[in-house]
Amino acid sequence: MTTYDRFLSxxxxxxxxxxxxxxxxxxxxAHDMVSFAAGYPDPASFPWDELRELAxxxxxxxxxxxxxxxxxxxxxxxIESTVGVLSARHIHVPADEITITSxxxxxxxxxxxxxxxxxxxxxxxxxxxxxxxxxLSNAGARLVGVRQGADGIDLDDLEAVWTRERQAGGRVNLxxxxxxxxxxxxxxxxxxxxxxxxEWADRRDVLIIEDDPYGSxxxxxxxxxxxxxxxxxxxxxxxxxxxxxxxxxxxxxxRVGWMVAPAALVVRFETAKQSIDLMTGSFDQRMxxxxxxRGVLDRIAPQLCSLYRAKRDAMEAALHSExxxxxxxxxxxGGFFLWxxxxxxxxxxxxxxxxxxCRLVFVVGSAFYVDGTGHDRIRLAFSVASADRIQEGxxxxxxxxxxxxxxxxxxxxxxx
Length: 416
Prior knowledge:
The protein is of the alpha/beta class. The protein contains 14 helices and 13 strands.
């Protein structure tokens, strides 16, 4: 039988798998599994009736371009619609700085392909989103972690890490981070840190990859909305490459996201995208454009915030009722995740093995760390499970955490 290892390229030998996708496979194959693993949107949030109506209109056959090839950089009306979406987020850019991508994950991959030289140090948060870890690692980046505080990335540690890498001869060009309701911690980067981070990037000649899939999913009203102002909104020097997506607000199955970058880089990203998928799906783009144009997104936005706030509250209440003070976490003000610290004596992988026996799955904390740490943390996604399943999942987590009683000693046999 043919073996294939000898055919693999160096990249093919060292591809980095997403821990989140791996846990999704476990869930799909198991019976009665409660999943706190993948950060999927709740299908109940999808505007099914309006999407069905849009699909019927678009597939009438009156416009053949709906199912035809289109421009690599994106369907022009959708690009113009995205200009409006960005404007609502205080980002004012011309259409030629926008690229439509197959989800924001493709944006990370395009940046890695165009801007990463194998061996380059790329700075990421500790912990960081596993999809970014995979995309950057697969491009040959050497990922270097920067600590986080309660209000986001630690700027003193960022400066120390940058200095150390430069003194070692590294070409430090990129910093990747998720400022709004960070994946996995749920942390919100403070406005003061955002200002100082832009100043730092300009002083140190670094580009920032700002990944913002959760910024519109804020739970505390106008105050939180003001706190989610993107870095790109105040970037006067062209330092920020901004990524976002319609996956968390409309539906992930359309695989439509976007990237904002200086026009000089957009040309490079477009060329790289041509060799990957030629274009993001025409029908998907048309559906998203019509949903934006007809106000579907604006209509459901408040409902999404209410829905996920209720799910966060349900998970916190369930964990408190089932585990008391055994887990520790900071209440997230938005997003999909709760980042929990384990009780002493437990590790993430050991607990996951026991949780799987209880038919519960989550993502181990160490998957988000590029320095081998994080074994005292787990990520619990509250976005897709119902309140009843969240309660049941908390019960199973408590069962996995409780110490297993030691077997009773066997009495010694009487001596003859």
